[in-house]
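Worked problem 6 (solution included).
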Amino acid sequence: MASRKVLLLIADIGGYTKFIRAHKTSLAHADLIVHELLESVVQAARGSFELSKLEGDAVFLFTASDSPSADLTPVLAEMHRAFHAKQQMIEENQICGCAACVGTGGLKLKVVAHRGEALVRKIRHCHELTGECVIVVHRMLKNEVPLREYVLFSDELARAANAETQCRLVATRLNMEGFGEVPTAYLDLSQLAGEIPPAVRLPWPMRFLAYVWHGVLAIPFRLGMKRPLEDFHNIPE
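Solution. The predicted structure is:
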């Protein structure tokens, strides 16, 4: 199986640990909310990136890349807008008072981006990627970027960014396990997206039906038939 150059993105939901509370209904709603937010990010990236898999409170995306010079800012901006538009829609229309529903606004989006050579295998409906670049992009998630929302580029992508992006980048060095000090650069993700249009407030009957439907979806959690956050293995409970 031949390897190929790929561009990798991991979009991670920041603030998730504080978002979780012990009550089962709250955890069930947290599970549903995070799935909705991640789905909005995947849909925004569709056409530019393919989904490899869900990883905890993050999505792992990739695309073939013969050159690092592709301008990522449009898709990154669209991912940020989609995330916050969905977040605001949930906030504006929820009538549930559980900790998860009330705390939705505290969630943020963080993205890391890297380019390298990987083996790509399709297993059923998923793409499995292996290679050093896959390790690198995952370890980039452990960083000390002093922003709540950001995109962190590996050095090659940072140097290949367009002039407008270059002006906004802040150079930094990441102490990465197994690789030593690695040059990276980050920028404020919200600067790319601009203002998010206010969410539409749905009529009361529609909001009430959504509340009832979320309650129905929470039943398997409350009865112990499904474990809250079982798909989110990267998150400590």
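Discussion: Residues 93 and 207 are 6 Å apart (CA to CA).
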